[in-house]
């Protein structure tokens, strides 16, 4: 679960919950209290591309439906295609 909060008074003593998100173990959103809050950073604080339903992990994409990184990359030492999901 992740809660997005802000300080209501500027003094740290009153927090307002803007959005609360619950995930399964792979990063699929199970529930969200306020999707309109517009927070695109979701599971493990990574950016979710809503159109693709994929998380961006800086150098590669993660598919929570598959539970892995689906793209094929070239291993730098051999230039053979290697699936990240098979090696990580």
Automatic annotation (TrEMBL):
Pfam families: TEN_YD-shell. Residues 14-69 form the Teneurin-like YD-shell domain. This is Teneurin-like YD-shell domain-containing protein. InterPro entries: Rhs_assc_core, TEN-like_YD-shell. NCBIfam families: Rhs_assc_core. The keyword Repeat applies. Keywords: Repeat.
């Amino acid at each position: 679960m992740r809660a997005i909060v802000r300080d209501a008074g500027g003094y740290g003593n009153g927090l307002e919950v803007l959005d609360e998100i619950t995930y399964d173990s792979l990063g699929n959103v199970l529930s969200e209290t306020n999707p309109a809050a517009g927070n695109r950073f979701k599971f493990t604080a990574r950016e979710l591309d809503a159109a693709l339903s994929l998380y961006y992990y800086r150098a590669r994409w993660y598919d929570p439906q598959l539970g892995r990184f689906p793209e094929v990359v070239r291993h730098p030492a051999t230039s053979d295609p290697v699936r990240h999901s098979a090696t990580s």
